[in-house]
Amino acid sequence: MEQPLVSIVTITRNRGNMLRRCIKSVLAQTYTNIEHIVVDGASDDNTDEVISEFKDERLRFVKLESNWPIKETIDYGVSLCKGKYISFLDSDDEYLPQKIEKQVDLIERLPEDYGFVYCWMTYHDSSNNNTPFRVHKPELRGNVGDEVVRSPVVTGTPTLLFRLDFFRSFGGWKSKEEIGIVDDWEMCARACQLTKVDYVPESLVNVYINHGSVRQSEETSYYDKPYERLIKYHDYFLTFFADVFKRHPDYAQYHYHNLTYSYAMLRQRKKAFVFFRKYIRTSPSFSKASILLLRVIIGK
Fold it and tell me: What is the DSSP string of the chain?
């Protein structure tokens, strides 16, 4: 039986040396019917030279004339996809060889009401010889729309594999103008309100941090006013998923914590205390975290 085509989208900007590792990991997949679409935000490093090293027709490189915002860049990559399924890979990360094979095998056996699957991922510290230090390994499957709103559990862009039709139907990522930041947790939480989900219980992605390379977002003012962005983000969560928090008031605790902290860092103590009171009402006890958060508010 013919393998269904899987589209893999990578966006990048001035990460030529790391992009090489990313592309190699995609083209080395044991699942071979893939297309790798790399959308470049007008890099001026050695990205073009790195791309020229690859002669594989499954790789499609698109260089933009300028560095677009993150959501627009991703959406453009998605618009070029022809696969039945779609996955994503950040240009500083890599797939393990069986990532796509194992996820396609799973989703092909699932009913159509499963819109996506995920796997686990291992974090590596590039400042310490790429030492692995944590595995993100959520274990949620089925109807998990309420649970995923509570904290960033089903998340991690490179761990996901969607039915492309489903991905396009709910719109993918939201922009920073809409919700403050471009975030895969929000996107997954929203998707899980519409579909069931399953996972491969195995780490199939390596995520590298502290590598010191430029982020695509750094040249688009993405990190301006970080606390204001976090406030907008968590306010959005509390509003958009209000029905979930009405059913499970304690699920809002993570958001109240972040809103308290953000307002405190902006020295808006009255607002910080408003959310601090909400936070402690959802906490089973006045914990050490509560004390630390109170100290942030009062500036100690």
Answer: -PPPPEEEEEEESS-HHHHHHHHHHHHT-S---EEEEEEE----SSHHHHHHT---TTEEEEE-SS---HHHHHHHHHHT--SSEEEE--TT-EE-TTHHHHHHHHHHTS-TTEEEEEEEEEEEEGGGTTEEEEEE-----BS-TTGGGTSS-S--GGG-EEEHHHHHHHTSPPPHHHHSS--HHHHHHHHHTTSEEEEEEEEEEEEEE---PPPGGGGGTTTSSHHHHHHHHHHHHHHHTHHHHHH-GGGGHHHHHHHHHHHHHTT-HHHHHHHHHHHHHTSSS--HHHHHHHHHHHT-
